[in-house]
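Reply to dn_fold:

You asked what the input looked like. This is it:
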Amino acid sequence: MIESAVVASGRMPDVSSLRTHLRVVSDAAEPLQRRITNLSNAVERFRPFGFTRTFELLYSATGASPGKWTPEQLDVAARLIDDAHASWAARVREEQQRAREAKRQPGYRPLSRDQLVDAWWDEYASFPGNRALWNLTDE
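and this is what came back:
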């Protein structure tokens, strides 16, 4: 399967994890362009607001602009993505536990992916600190 992907695209597919990309983004020893590319790869893997909107919010929260990042701005962006992802992962684990316990009950219906995302977002965005970090406003 990987071979066919290589033949079709002419290169190996990127199978790195979100954490791997964030580690490169935060590594001051890495060239700046590699850090920027890895931020984009990280956002491809976890985009809490959609790809484009997540970047717009990262630009706003860090003061960066498309393609123009400082090392400090990249560090802030990596922390924002990592924090949001940790919150998301914790919410998913909680829901999995709740589902394991509830599925024995009559009439059990698991949350849909959209319901899970909405529940996480309501919880995550309800904290003023998160809203301020992401520069979110009530639009």
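Confidence is low (pLDDT under 50) at residues 1-9.
Hope that clears it up.
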